[in-house]
Amino acid sequence: MTPQELRALCLSFNATVEDFPFNPETSVFKVLGKLFALTNLDARPLTVNLKCDPEDAVRLREEHPGLIVPGWHMNKRHWNTVTADGELPDRLVRELVEDSYDLVVAGLPRADRLRLDRP
């Protein structure tokens, strides 16, 4: 997955914005103000921090050692750092980004979730 594809994927979800609260290099993708993906799109290898169900996080780390690791500078129980530069199938990276978005949306207040469902 290229940096441009990762950025486009993150921005494809409903009510998503890209923000730079830490520095100009670190893209933070948020849904209604809540972080679901964090990456430096210029870094090599390309990695992205993604929220993950704790049980799935451990399983994914075991299945993809070195490519999916505990979230760098994040709560390691709920976040993984995923190498998105092509060693993992793009389909898996897309699924993990979507899962991260869905987990964050599920934690939003009901009124916000309902707002997201409207066209």
UniProtKB/TrEMBL annotation:
Pfam families, alphabetized: YjbR (PF04237)
Single GO MF descriptor: DNA binding
Keyword Chaperone in record: no
Domain of life from the UniProt record: Bacteria
Keywords: DNA-binding
InterPro entries linked: YjbR (IPR007351), YjbR-like_sf (IPR038056), YjbR/MT2646/Rv2570-like (IPR058532)
Protein name (record): DNA-binding protein
Organism whose genome encodes this protein: Streptomyces poonensis
